[in-house]
Design goal:
It is elongated and about 90 Å long. Helices cover 52% and strands 11% of the residues. Among the domains are: 228 residues, NagB/RpiA/CoA transferase-like (Rossmann fold), CATH 3.40.50.10420; 255 residues, no CATH class. Helix 26 packs across helix 27, helix 31 packs parallel to helix 35 and helix 33 crosses helix 34. The protein has 35 helices and 17 strands. It has 698 residues and is of the alpha/beta class. Bound molecules: iron/sulfur cluster (2 copies). The site of one iron/sulfur cluster has 14 residues, from helix 14, helix 15, helix 17 and helix 18.
Length: 698
């Protein structure tokens, strides 16, 4: 069970807002997409020959007088560092920020062996004084307020310290300098190891890295093996992206290339710690492209709610779950892997294009295989969803019981026992009186006569079939008005929920059942972005078949189809006169980030209402639905929904439009539970309601 700290949530939200503005400014004039593609390709090439470049680096570093040591795991890395310190009689080690030292638990190990290890990065020093762990890879003390930092400093000094920034900085500077000048050894990390010249590249903003690496007699560089880059020009590419993506700075204040000892001795400890296993795994290898810029954390909705103390083992967020699985073990990553919503926001901003959410799904699959499937997921995916007649029977029973369990407004009364999680913070919709497939047959009995522009298949998805048939009917109305003969796709699960939970064999079965009914040579129009993601992206990857690829090429989200294929004719269906509706738009995660169809929906809505949409703040912030996530993590889902409702109501709109039936369930249910009068509509409903009335139209 995760616990939400409202103060932390506020800090992280404000930080994320400011970060995104700074980042956008810092990338002005640069093409982020092509830069990160170049960096991802470079990292892939280097990872493929990691051993060769490491040897080259070692040779060059030795030629500068450095001693290079290899550590296969945490225990060996700690032992090697301790032996170095013992050899030089070191009693105090000062450190600049190093995530690898956190990974191997160096401070605790040294303390247990009589060596004091002191952090000198301000954030790291603060968390060390507070006896906590870093909660962010770039800003370790991001979770603490100024007041809390002042209290930590006061306790450390035994005297009152003001919480004004200049006072805090003065204390830190004086204290840290004392630490650095009294230490016999300094330890730094490395942002890159340059193979052609044997230099370690170090980026800092406080200058502590330079002091730590030059003032004590002994300097240790602690770096993981994937940090190697072949040439100095490659570091240039890294420098273009890393500071901008990390903190929105064009460059960090200090960029150092350290080649050889400055005073006494220099040691370079290269840590493997299961990275060779990652390198050998073709599926997961790309996680070693990570440059620890933390941009993925800064946009992750779950990180923004929980922070790094709950959404981490040592490494944080989605990428942290993946690294943890390999470095600290599958067991440690189990809970973390479950926390990802699958929103794809991290992938949009990742400096090296790591497919974080796809890999988390692959990790869930591995977790299920190695550690066993969670009991309740086995019931849902192996027991119910895998057996369509049983699932249909459950829906049929719910329909029979509908008059007893559903309120007049179409929402269920209180949910029973195990289902309680569904409606803790939102009302759950009552099942529709008739499934969409039945309503369609009744409303479009003469579909055969309507064929003028060809036929297409409408695949509505489960939520529309059983809960929101009006959305399916609206889409059918719009497509029919364009002259298409609309045929109904099967009322069956697309397979996404099973795939997303790591039950890929069940997902394949579901997709194969479905695809048997989707005739070739016809467009397949979807009304649910999650179904579209399954059909267009996941199925071809899972099945690796020509049939799946062919089907994927025929799938279009409803709004994308209208804009790409019917842009000219669709505008004729609406009045040019602006209507009185005040409409805002919520970007559903898959619709925006994966299908890239949000702007198409906006254009269509604007066309249909004859005026601009009232944009809400953070229209792309996740509403917290994410399928079973809202059941397994209701407290996070609720927090995200609350934020979304504030954005919607502050927009001044009376209608919120969206494209995902799941988001509709969440937001409509939240509005109902909070007594909010905002009307929630699918884009198809808005378009259908705005169609010019013509004689004989449905
Ligand atoms: S997909 Fe979304 S929830 Fe998952 S790690 Fe990425 S940003 Fe976070
Ligand atoms: S996963 Fe990508 S965005 Fe996240 S820290 Fe690594 S490189 Fe940066």
């Amino acid at each position: 069970m995760t616990k939400i700290d409202p103060d932390l949530k506020k800090i992280l939200k404000e930080f994320s807002h400011d970060y995104l503005l700074k980042r956008q400014e810092s990338f002005k004039g640069l093409d982020f997409e092509s830069l990160r593609t170049e960096l991802a390709e470079l990292k892939d090439r280097v990872l493929a020959q990691n051993g060769k470049y490491l040897l080259q680096f070692e040779e060059k570093a030795r030629s500068h007088g450095s001693q290079v040591l290899r550590a296969k795991d945490s225990a060996e890395a700690n032992r090697l560092i301790f032996e170095i310190l013992k050899k030089h009689g070191v009693k105090k080690l000062v450190k600049s920020k190093s995530m690898v030292s956190e990974e191997i638990g160096l401070n605790e190990f040294l303390l247990g062996n009589g060596v004091e290890a002191r952090e000198t990065d301000l954030g790291e020093w603060i968390v060390q004084l507070a006896r906590e762990r870093p909660t962010h890879m770039v800003m370790p003390a991001i979770h603490l307020t100024r007041k809390e930092v002042a209290e930590i400093f006061s306790k450390h000094l035994g005297e009152e310290v003001s919480n004004e920034i200049p006072a805090l900085i003065r204390v830190a500077r004086e204290e840290l300098r004392k630490e650095i000048f009294s230490a016999q050894a300094g330890l730094t990390g490395a942002n890159a190891l340059i193979a052609e010249n044997g230099a370690a590249m170090l980026l800092t903003n406080e200058g502590n890295g330079r002091l730590v690496s030059t003032i004590p007699q002994v300097h240790i560089v602690l770096a993981s093996i994937e940090k190697v880059l072949p040439r100095i020009q490659d570091a240039d590419l890294l420098l273009k992206i890393l500071p901008r993506n990390a903190t929105g700075q064009a460059l960090t204040s200090y960029v150092s290339f350290i080649a050889g000892p400055h005073r006494g001795a220099q040691y370079i400890v290269l840590v493997d710690n299961h990275r060779s296993e990652i390198l050998a795994d073709s599926k997961f290898r790309e996680i070693l492209r990570c440059i620890k810029c933390s941009a993925c954390l800064n946009v992750c909705p779950v990180y923004q709610i929980l922070g790094g103390s709950q959404y981490s083992h040592i490494y944080m967020g989605g990428i942290g779950s993946l690294l943890t699985a390999w470095i600290h073990g599958l067991k440690e990553s189990k809970q973390l892997a479950d926390l990802c919503l699958g929103c794809h926001r991290c992938e949009e901003i990742c400096a090296t294009k790591i497919a974080i959410s796809d890999l988390i799904v692959a990790l869930r699959e591995r977790l299920n295989k190695v550690l066993g499937k969670p009991f309740w997921k086995k019931i849902v995916f192996d027991g119910v969803i895998a057996h369509p007649p049983l699932l249909q029977g459950i829906f049929h029973a719910a329909r029979v019981a509908r008059p007893i369990v559903t309120e007049r407004l179409g929402f269920a009364r209180k949910m029973p026992l195990a289902m309680k999680k569904f409606d803790r913070f939102r009302s759950f919709p009552g099942i529709a009186r008739k499934p969409f497939s039945q309503s369609f047959e009744e409303n479009f009995p003469s579909a055969k006569e309507m064929e003028t522009e060809g036929s297409l298949i409408l695949f509505a998805g489960c939520l529309i079939e059983h809960f929101y048939p009006e959305i399916g009917l609206s889409a059918s109305r719009v497509l029919s008005r364009l002259g298409y003969k609309v045929k109904l796709g099967p009322a069956a699960c697309c397979g996404f929920p099973s795939a997303n939970s790591g039950f890929s064999s069940r997902s394949k079965q579901a997709f194969e059942r479905l695809s048997a009914h989707l005739k070739e040579e016809e467009f397949i129009i979807t009304l649910c972005p999650t179904c579209a993601t399954m059909l267009k992206h996941i199925a071809p990857q899972l099945l690796k078949s020509e049939k799946a690829r062919n089907l994927a090429s025929r799938v279009f989200p409803f709004s994308q189809f209208l804009i790409q294929k019917e842009k000219e004719r669709i505008s004729n269906l609406f009045s040019a006169q602006p209507c009185s509706w005040r409409v805002t738009y919520h970007d559903s995660c898959h619709h925006k980030y994966f299908l890239k169809a949000s702007e198409d929906s906006r254009r269509l809505i604007q066309m249909s209402i004859g005026k601009e949409i009232l944009e809400m703040e953070s229209s792309d912030a996740c509403c917290g639905f994410a399928g079973i996530f809202s059941v397994s993590h209701p407290e996070i889902s609720e927090a995200l929904l609350e934020e979304k409702l504030v954005s919607i109501t502050s927009s001044g709109a009376e209608i919120v439009a969206l494209d995902c039936p799941g988001c509709l369930l969440q937001i409509r249910g939240g509005c109902h539970r909070h007594g909010c009068s905002i009307v929630v509509k699918h884009t198809a409903e808005i378009l259908a309601e705005r169609l010019i009335i013509t004689s004989g139209a449905r």
